[in-house]
From TrEMBL:
Protein name as it appears in the record: Glutamine synthetase
Protein residues bound to L-glutamate: N264, G265, R322, E328, R340, R361
EC number: 6.3.1.2
Biological source species: Paenibacillus foliorum
InterPro entries named among the record's database cross-references: Gln_synt_N, Gln_synt_N_sf, Gln_synth/guanido_kin_cat_dom, Gln_synth_cat_dom, Gln_synth_gly_rich_site, Gln_synth_I, Gln_synth_N_conserv_site
Reaction(s) this enzyme catalyzes, per UniProt: L-glutamate + NH4(+) + ATP = L-glutamine + ADP + phosphate + H(+)
Top EC category: ligase
Subunit structure: Oligomer of 12 subunits arranged in the form of two hexagons.
Positions that bind ATP: E207, F223, R224, F225, H271, Q272, S273, R340, K354
Residues recorded as bearing O-AMP-tyrosine in the entry: Y403
Record keywords, A-Z: ATP-binding, Cytoplasm, Ligase, Magnesium, Metal-binding, Nucleotide-binding, Phosphoprotein
Binding site for Mg(2+): E129, E131, E212, E220, H269, E359
Length: 474
């Protein structure tokens, strides 16, 4: 789409404001809005200036001037603003016109460029399954003399005996019993359908939505796969619309991996494949799961580099509250057909050659999608380049129920890192696969690790309420 086409849309739809957005290292979106009357073709050439020193991990105050250049292919109408507004995603540049090497969206684009120069294929496709909770109330604090959190949901099993105005109507979602029930147990059919309607109006192709396993309003909406950067753009749009739709209903949506103790957390299972033009490169009839050797090598790269990769795909301290056995959590570094406790699953039901793909189940939605998808592609391409065979490396296939295996058998299965600090240490030791082709830079990785170390330390040094239960009376 040309800049003139965007200007035509602004005029035809009576748009009053143009919202220019970019994404920081953590995956949070930021925006600056310009009156539509001030947006001209030159705006798409010269960009919009902003202060990079106010964005964590970007620039120091002595070199803070930065520019975001809009990508005209990302335009959509914001469904939540009172004044008609269009949203445009941007890439970040330095004032001298150089692509900024800490811009997550730029890194995603460089990963796609590297795929083509590596001679493996032309296009990588990604499709995330991003789960979320919809709560009715959230309260939290972390101070010097107090620390607490509280969440509540009308669906939650702990409210089965709550007295409510008008009477308690029952039909609560049982503990770990929320997978695809119908109403009245599923109270969120209409809100998810409204989310889907708005997502479709914003350009996403929605495939389905449903209630998920956990109690207290866990849901999932699946949208159609696309190329790496476009899928990351779509995921940012998805999270924005899900959270703001919930807000319009007087509720709150969160993509936090483990907001509830003792029930299933929210993951972001990422389906991925590589094509050469219209030819699917991951399909080979008769192979394990009908996968080609290229796909097997891609899996080998994902699993071999998984400890480092997880620093980018599961980049929060809360991520590792989800990555514990017993809650469908994919903590086992193995691959399998249909085994949801393995880190890599090969979907086999109703799969066509073009639909043949691998699913990395470990990630969650605290990941910056541009960085996470780029890192997964780079790990997979390294596996292809080095012909890493996951079978020879001892990653499976694992076609057993892991929960029924003996302790001795389980002991032979490698696991994901247990903490964010462990994952960051793994990234420090294994990052070269990310810097191939200049996709990630060493400067970016060092800066990212420093930011995440600070987050881990901030949690580690604070007093946890459960410590009072354990130690106060000693």
């Amino acid at each position: 789409m040309s800049a003139q086409n965007v200007l035509n849309i602004i005029k035809e739809k009576g748009i009053e404001w143009v919202d220019f957005r970019f994404v920081d290292l953590s995956g949070r979106a930021h925006h600056i809005s310009l009156p539509a009357s001030e947006v001209e073709e030159e705006t798409f050439v010269n960009g919009v200036a902003f202060d990079g020193s106010s964005i964590p991990g970007f620039k120091g105050i002595e070199e803070s001037d930065m520019v975001m250049l809009p990508d005209t292919e990302t335009v959509y109408v914001d469904p939540f603003t009172a004044h008609p507004t269009v949203v445009i995603m941007c890439n970040i540049y330095t004032p001298d016109g150089e692509r900024y090497d800490r811009d997550p969206r730029s890194i995603a684009q460089k990963a796609e460029e590297y795929l083509q120069t590596a001679g493996v294929g032309t296009t990588a496709y990604f499709a995330p399954e991003s789960e979320f909770f919809i709560f009715d109330e959230v309260r939290y604090e972390s101070g010097q003399n107090s620390s607490s959190y509280f969440v509540d949901s009308e669906e939650a099993h702990w409210n089965s005996n709550r007295k409510e105005e008008g009477g308690n109507l029952g039909f609560k979602v049982k503990h770990k019993g929320g997978y695809v029930p119908v109403g009245p147990t599923d109270t969120q059919q209409d809100i998810r359908s409204e989310m889907c309607r708005l997502l479709m109006e914003a350009g996403l192709r929605i495939e389905r939505h449903h209630h998920e396993v956990a109690t207290a309003g866990q849901g999932e909406i699946n949208f159609r796969f696309d190329t790496l950067t476009k899928t990351a753009d779509n995921l940012m749009k998805y999270k924005y619309i899900v959270q703001n739709t919930a807000n319009s209903y007087g509720k709150v949506a969160t993509f936090m991996p483990k907001p509830l103790f003792g029930d299933n957390g929210s993951g972001m299972h990422v389906h991925q494949s590589i094509f050469n033009g219209s030819e699917p490169l991951f399909y080979e009839k008769g192979g394990y799961g009908n996968l080609s050797e290229m796909a097997m090598n891609y899996i080998g790269g994902i699993l071999y580099h998984a400890p480092a990769l997880i620093a980018l795909t599961n980049p929060s301290t809360n991520s590792f509250k989800r990555l514990v056995p017993g809650y469908e959590a994919p903590v086992n570094l193995a691959f399998s057909k249909g085994n949801r406790s393995a880190a890599v699953r090969i979907p086999v039901a109703a799969v066509t050659p073009k639909g043949c793909r691998i699913e990395f189940r470990t990630p969650d939605s605290t990941a910056n999608p541009y960085l996470a998808f780029a890192a997964m592609l780079m790990a997979g391409l390294d596996g292809i380049k080095k012909k890493l065979d996951p079978r020879a490396l001892g990653y499976g296939p694992l076609d057993k129920n892991i929960y029924e295996m003996s302790d001795e058998e389980k002991g032979e299965i490698r696991s994901v890192p247990g903490t964010l600090d462990e994952a960051l240490s793994a990234l420090e030791a294994d990052y070269e696969f990310l810097t191939e082709g200049g996709v990630f830079t060493k400067d970016f990785i060092d800066n990212y690790i420093g930011l995440k170390r600070d987050e881990a330390k901030a949690v580690a040094i604070r007093i946890h309420p459960h410590e009072y239960s354990l130690y106060f009376d000693l």
